[in-house]
Amino acid sequence: MSYKAPRRYSNGRNFGVERQQDFVADIVPRRPYENKGSNKWSRNLVWTASGANKPRKNGNTYGSTKPQVSGAGALVSNQQRKDAAYVQRSSSVSDTRGWGSSDRGSPKSKECVCKFWKAGNCKKGDQCSFLHSLTCLPGLVMVAALEGHKKDLKGIALPQGSDKLFSAGSDGTLRIWDCHTGQRVHTINLQAEAGSLICEGPWVFLGLPNAVKAFNVQTSKDLHLNGVVGQVRTMTVGNGMLFAGTSSGSISVWKATDSESDPFTYLTSLKGHHSGEVTCFIVGGHRLYSGSVDRTIKVWDLNTLECTMTLRHHTDTVTSLLCWDQYLISSSLDGTIKVWACSENGSLTVTNTRRQEQSVHTLCGMSDAEGKPIVFCSYENGTVSICDLPSFEVRGKMFSTNTVGTITIGPEGLLFTGDKNGKLRVWSLAGTKV
């Protein structure tokens, strides 16, 4: 295994872990989809921090490779986890190309899961025209279903140096699972709704009403961070700072310090914040991007903490954000996925819009074993499409009985998904290089 030279944050403590030097670059002027060098995902993917769809066609097309897959993994310990995006290999199940490629399966095809099979009473067996599986991507298998949550899952976290998986939901519980056995080892009654859960290095951050809880799995240090107004809905880490977006539209900021007694100091609440609930974050290069129910995306300078621009092209709640290479990708309840690039005058403009027949809830990205970027797109009907970038050609799908609102990438080909019924599933995708 070859590791890149680590880089530390420019300010403050690095949350107890060195980060790899493959941050996404700042979004700068460039010809749309001019592919120079390797594709790089943001190191601060929102681990959420989101069906039968027919996108609008346009003229852009891009080819893609179709690597083969083999084998499958299982639940593993995270003691030696690499703090980076885990590359994966999968095969394509579609021969279409371009932004206009269809994401719609035939009504009688193996890309539609059988509703009777999901209910446990399909009588046709192998003769059924529909899929008797929760996935139609070769090499992707479900290895565990973790039961316990009763309502919408708000976050899944696998902190560095731990063999425990953490999950939190709007049912007011934090559950801890053993990665070796898949058994629940502890349930904590939070006495309040959990709005967000992330991890960074050994730290686990839990968003609650008017507060953030921080727990270090290595030192067992347990902190209560004040300075929040409203229910915390989303969090991320960037430039040695923790950001928490709330239901009031505010964004609270804490600075990591070198003090063992006070490792996080409240810094500020960002000015010029959203007029509605903050729903999602992503950090790319020297910028923080925030999405909101007010239908806007705000761009913040991580050095000055000033809002430098507001993006207004969505017509409903912005649900998820990704940074890929030189581009920002956003999804919305308006049924679109938009790709943004920097124009010559420095503003971000939409270069492509992928239209769906239903709302898009979560985006999550990684690279496959060939270094090709893939994106997981979660839709209202419980389907998660797995697509190539930049073509959005569909490689395969995952299925759930309800909308998947949380997707977390784990080590060694593992994926964790949580839906709005509280179902937490563990998946393994073969062909991963770590």
TrEMBL record:
Residues 113-135 form the C3H1-type domain. InterPro entries: WD40/YVTN_repeat-like_dom_sf, WD40_PAC1, WD40_repeat_CS, WD40_repeat_dom_sf, WD40_rpt, WDR86-like, Znf_CCCH, Znf_CCCH_sf. SMART domains: WD40, ZnF_C3H1. It comes from the Eukaryota. One of its GO terms (molecular function) is zinc ion binding. Residues 44-71, 85-109 are annotated as: Disordered. This is C3H1-type domain-containing protein. It comes from Brassica oleracea var. oleracea. The lineage of its organism: Eukaryota, Viridiplantae, Streptophyta, Embryophyta, Tracheophyta.
